[in-house]
Amino acid sequence: MDEDLVLPETFDFEDLGLIRQPDAEPDSEFFVSNTDLLEDVVEFNGIPMRSFRDRPYYMYVGVWALRSCYLGHLARGGKPNELMEQLERRNNRVKSDACRTRYSDPSRRP
Question: Which pTM value belongs to this model?
Answer without folding.
Answer: 0.76
